[in-house]
Amino acid sequence: MKDAFGTPQSLLILGGTSEIALATARRLIARRTRTVWLAGRPTSALETAASGLRELGADVRTVAFDALDSDSHESALAPVFAEGDIDMVLLAFGILGDQARDENEPGAAVRVAQTNYTGAVSAGLICAKALQAQGHGSLVVLSSVAGERARRANFIYGSSKAGLDAFAQGLGDALHGTGVHVMVVRPGFVRSRMTAGLPEAPLATTPEAVATAIEVGLRRRSETVWVPGSLRLVMSALRHAPRAVVRRLPV
């Protein structure tokens, strides 16, 4: 069970090689987390991530999970919850895609949408049901500021995150009063493998900064977390700006 400060003893990460997720796991292990499940495609990268967390003193296990194979989600995740209560689920998988390529290759665009949205809906509902059955827990969903306003530079990725964000907010409303807490995390540009080679956006952040914000959000039982916090005002202005103005912005 989580302590009075919201630190989970057990953690399930969907997207077990995510840099943000692993930074969060390291931070939580340093506080109190003792059991970690890393769900992802069975690769050497997943095993390396697990080994790194074990060195910090956690009991770490891996589970084969493919975001694109929604038919397998139930059978993949049910055994995790059968092992014991999970205090926190971190939904951290997603792909950025390549906007220029994806516009010309609809199949590639669909893969972005299926991974970031469809896969998340499937896994999110399965985990929410399990958390509700145990009567407690937090579901933390990594969204993005890109979902706040469709922009020419990344509207395929942004639209998938917009769908995920709306889904997570609605799920949080549906679970209100059940003992299950849903928290949506909206980072800006994060310096990571996924963004390597891309021009850095203003107010860029790091996986470690996002991890810190997640920990603080858990402690406060926040429903929405912006990273950095100043992006909330920036995106509010962008969201309400006329489309003619947005089209002229270098974003």
From TrEMBL:
It comes from the Bacteria. InterPro entries: NAD(P)-bd_dom_sf, Sc_DH/Rdtase_CS, SDR_fam. Keywords: Oxidoreductase. PROSITE patterns: ADH_SHORT (PS00061). Belongs to the short-chain dehydrogenases/reductases (SDR) family. PANTHER family: 5-KETO-D-GLUCONATE 5-REDUCTASE, DECAPRENYLPHOSPHORYL-2-KETO-BETA-D-ERYTHRO-PENTOSE REDUCTASE. NCBIfam families: PRK07904.1. This is Decaprenylphospho-beta-D-erythro-pentofuranosid-2 -ulose 2-reductase.
